[in-house]
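Exercise 7b. Backbone tokens:
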């Protein structure tokens, strides 16, 4: 399994709604609202690195109100 932290910028006022939507996705371990340059941080797990891009594009960036993401891949 590959773990990654996804930093997400969303439309103003959509933080909690989008966090709830992301929390319901298979592969998402945790989502928190944060302050600063990003609005949310999500911890995800995918079977292997080749699935990471597809997961982000199809499951996170496709959510209405998501403006931008930045991905941090975790290592042991």
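Sequence design result:
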């Amino acid at each position: 399994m590959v773990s990654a932290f996804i930093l997400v910028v969303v439309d103003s006022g959509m933080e909690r709604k989008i966090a709830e939507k992301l929390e319901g996705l298979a592969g998402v371990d945790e989502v928190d609202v944060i302050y600063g340059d990003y609005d949310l941080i999500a911890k995800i797990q995918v079977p292997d690195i080749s699935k990471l891009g597809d997961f982000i594009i199809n499951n996170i960036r496709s959510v209405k109100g998501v403006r931008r993401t930045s991905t941090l891949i975790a290592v042991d």
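Instructor comment: The chain has two helices and four strands. The mean pLDDT is 96.
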